[in-house]
Specification:
This protein is α+β, with helices and mostly antiparallel strands. It has helices spanning 10-20, 49-57; strands at residues 22-32, 35-46. The chain has a domain at 21-57. A two-stranded antiparallel ribbon has the order 1-2. The longest helix is centred in the first third of the chain and has 11 residues, at 10-20. It is elongated.
Length: 58
Amino acid sequence: MPEDLEELSLLETLDHLLDRGVVIAGDAVISIGDVDLLYLGLNIVLANVDAIIRTGRK
């Protein structure tokens, strides 16, 4: 492993992700016998308030 790569702790990684903002999206369908019974759509935005304001002004 090259020595110039720095290791990030979990807290530093989370801080970096929240500073940039993260979008998590997913779908889930529950069905029985080819009949869809339940559809779940998930969209989550994780960011700090400053990051949201910065992207809103661009």
